[in-house]
Amino acid sequence: MAHAQTSHAPSDKYYVPHSSPWPIVGSVSLFTTVVGVALWLNHVNAGPWVFALGLAMVVFMFVRWFGDVIRESESRLYNEAVDRSFRMGMMWFIFSEVMFFAAFFGALFYARQFSIPWLGGEGVKVFTNLLLWKDYENAWPSNGPADVGGDFEVIPAFGLPAINTAILLLSGVTITIAHHALKAGNRKVLNIFLAATFLLGFLFIVLQAEEYMHAYHELNLTLGSGVYGSTFFMLTGFHGFHVTVGAIMLTVIWFRCLKGHFTPTHHFAFEGVAWYWHFVDVVWLILFVFVYWL
Amino acid sequence: MAHTHEAAHHADDHSHDHHGPEKGWRRWVYATNHKDIGTMYLVFSLIMFFVGGTMALVIRAELFQPGLQLVDPMFFNSMTTMHALVMIFGAVMPAFVGLANWMVPLQIGAPDMALPRMNNFSFWIMPFAFTLLLSTLFVPGGAPAGGWTMYPPLVLQNGTSFPMLIFAVHLMGASSIMGAINVVVTIMNMRAPGMSLLKMPLFVWSWLITAYLLVAVMPVLAGAVTMLLTDHYFGTTFFEAAGGGDPVMFQHIFWFFGHPEVYIMILPAFGVVSEIIPTFSRKPLFGYDAMVYATASIAFLSFIVWAHHMFTVGMPLAGQLFFMLATMLIAVPTGVKVFNWTATMFKGSISFEPPMLFALSFLFLFTIGGFSGLMLAIVPADFQYHDTYFVVAHFHYVLVPGAIFGIMAAVYYWLPKWTGHMYNNKLATWHFWLSTIFVNVLFFPQHFLGLAGMPRRIPDYSTQFADWNMVSSIGAFGFGLSQLLFAYIVWQTARGGVKASAKVWDTATPHGLEWTLSSPPPYHSFEVAPEVK
Ligand SMILES: [Cu+2]
Predict the structure, then answer these.
(1) Could you tell me if the ipTM is greater than 0.90?
(2) CATH fold for domain B28-189+203-516
(3) Mind telling me the catalytic residues of B?
(4) pTM for the complete prediction?
C-alpha cells in the first residue's frame, strides 16, 4: 500500500474533476474508428489504416482516462459517494450489455420458434412453404430452405464447449477466492488467484479460436451457414469479444494488485471487473444451453 | 472509513476547489460541469431542430401540390428518412438530456452529475455521430432513403451511405446509454439528505424512468443494426428467409426498441408539464403518487406492446389480440396523468405565462395524439390506417405539440433560472400562438388525408388530396418560420435583459430546490447539500 494514501483523508466533498481532455479524444477516436470501417466496407484503400489509427486512439484514450481515474483513486480523492456512483454505473452498464445480448438471443429464439417452423409450413405462414419452399421441412440446426452456405456439421456440446464451460466456471471460483483474499488482506493469495483467473480467461479464448478453426475448416460451419451460422457465430463471437475485454481488465487489475493498489475496504475496480467477469460467465452458460446443447 | 466528517460537513472551507469555468474553448471541449454540458446539449439540439425542420420543409414544399416538381423522388425519400433520424436522435432526445443535465442536479440538491467526465463523453459523441449521418447527403447514391425504421430488405439497398447510417446509430446509442446511466446514477446516489424517492420532483422521476428505458432498449437497437450490417457485408441471414431468417424478425427487434423509444421522447415532457401546471395554478400537483405510479406503469407496458407497429405484416391471431389489448391498456395510466393535470388546475388561481401556455397546449394536443393512438391500436382499424397520413398525423401530434412543446415549456420555465434574465414575454406569447395555430394547420388536415387513404412517404399523390396538402404545407412553413422567433428569444435572453430573481416566478409559488439558488445558479450547484424536509 504505497503512495499518498495517508497524506489526506478521502474528502467529504463529491469529487468533480475540473476538466478533462479524454472525452473529446474518445469521441474523435470512436469517430475515426467507425469512419475507417465505413471506408473499408466501401472499398476505399485507406479504410483499414484509418480503422487501425482509430483503434490505436481508442486504446490511448482508455489508458490515459483510466490512468487519471486510478491516480485520483489512489490519492484518495474519491469518497464513499463517488465509489457508490462507480458501482451503480458499472451495474447499469452490465444491464445494458445484458440487453445487447438479449437482442441476439431474441434472434435465435425467433428463428427456432417462428421463422424456421413457418418456412417448414407450420402455423399461419403455411403459404410461404406451399408457394416458395415446398420441400423444406422444419428442423434445427438449419441453414434455411435455400441451404445457404452448403451442408455443415455442428459442434457437439459435450466436447470442447463443455470443457470451456468448466474453465469459465472455475475462473468464477478463482476470482471469488481472490476477492475474499483481498478483503482479508492476504495479498499473496489475491495475486495468485487473480492470475489464475485471467489465465483461465485467455485459455478459454484460445480454445474458442481453436473451435472456430475447426468449424470453418472441417465442419463447413461459417458465419454464412444460414441462420444457424449467423446466430452461432454472432452470439459466441460477441461473447468471445467480451471475454477478451474481461480478461484484459483482469490483467490490468492484476498489475495494479502487484503495485499494491486496493485496500480491503476500497477496491471498486476489482469488484467492477469481477461483476463483469460473472456476467460473461452467465452469458456463456445460457449460450451453452441454447446454442450448443438444446 | 476511519474518518468522521460530521463537523466539517457544513464548514465550507474547500476554497482550493472554488474555481470558475476554464477560459476559452477548453470550457466547452474539456467540460465536466453539468450546466455547461447541459447548455451544449440544448444548443446542439436546437441546431438539429432547424436542420431536421429544413428537411421537413423540403417534404412539405414537394407535397404542396400534386405531381413531381421540386425534388427527385429518391431525394424525397432521403428527406423523410433523415428528417426522422435527425429529429428523434438529434433534436428531441438531446434536448431532454440537456434539460436533465441542467435540472436534475439542481432539483435534487447535488453538486453536479455523478459521472462528470462520462457526461462530456456522451455529449461530444453526438456532433460526430451527426457529422457522419449528415455527410451521407453528399456520398454517391445519396443519404439513406429506406425510412428511419431501417427495415430490411429495403435498407440493404442503400449504397455507400449504409455503413455510415449503421455506425451513426451505434454512436448515438453509445451516447444515449452513457447519458442515461449518468442520469440514473445521479438520481439514485446524489440526492440531498431527506429527499426520499417519493419527495423527488416529477421531472426527476420521469427522467429516472426514461433513463431506465434508454439503458434497456438502446442496446437492442444497436444489436438490430449490427445484424443489418452483417447481413449486408458478412453473409449472415438473420433477415433473409432463404437462410432460415425472416425480415419480419427485424421489425420485432426494432420495435422492441422503438415503442419504449416513443416513451423516452414523451415521459420527460410529462415531467416538465407536471412541474409547470402546479406552479401557475398555484396549487400542489394533484395525485403526486399516482403520477409516479402511472409513469412507471407506462414504462412497464411499453415493453409489451411493440407489435402494434406491425399488425399488417401478419402475425398469429393471439398475437394481434394481445398486442391490441396491451396497447389500449396504456390509455389507463395516461388517462390518470391527464386527469391529474386537469384536477391540478381545478379551482386553481391560474395565470398564463408562456410556460403555462405551452403546457396547456401540450395537454390538449397531446391528448388528441393519444386518442388517435388508441384508434391505431385497434387491429381491424389499423389495417385501414397503416402507412397512411393518419399515422403521420398521430405521431406528429404526440411529438410536436407533445415532446417539442414540452421542451419549449421547459425552456420558457427555466430559461430565466439558467441565464439570470427574464425573456421578452410578449414575443414569447407570440411564439406560442403562432406555434399552436400553425401546428394544427400543419397536422390536423393530415388526419383527413390519412382517413381518405393517402399513403405516407410518397412524393406524389392523387389530386383528390390536393386541398388538404396545400393547407398542411402552409401550416408547415408557418410553423417552421415561427421557430426562428424562438431561437431569437433564447439568444436575446442569453445576452441580457431584466434580471431574474431566484424564485423567477414571483406571482406563483414554485416549489423545488432549483428556486433556492440564485439566477443564474453558482458554477458549482450545491456545494453543501441542502436539507430536505
Ligand atoms: Cu408503439
Answers:
(1) yes
(2) Cytochrome C Oxidase; Chain A (1.20.210)
(3) 83, 112, 148, 175-176, 259, 261, 263, 274, 308-309, 334, 337, 456
(4) 0.94
